[in-house]
Amino acid sequence: MTQRLGRPDSRVRSRIKLSAFINPQPSDDELLFLRQLGVTHCYTWLPDELTNDEHLAALVAKVSHAGLTLYNAGNINVGKSPHIHLGTAERDRDIVRFAELLRILSRAGITTTTFTWEPDQVWSSSASESRFAKARHVDLRELISHPLTHGREYHLEELWDNFEYFMRAIIPVAEDTGVGLALHPNDPPTEALGGITCLINSRERYDHAFAIADSANLGMEFCTGCWLEGGAQFGDMLASMRHYVNEKRIFIVHFRNVSAPQPVFTETFLDNGYFDMYQAMKVLVASGYDGTIILDHSPEFVGDYHLGAGAAYAIAYMRALIERAEDELGVA
Question: Which of 3, 136, 260, 305 is the most buried (most CB within 10 A)?
Answer without folding.
Answer: 136
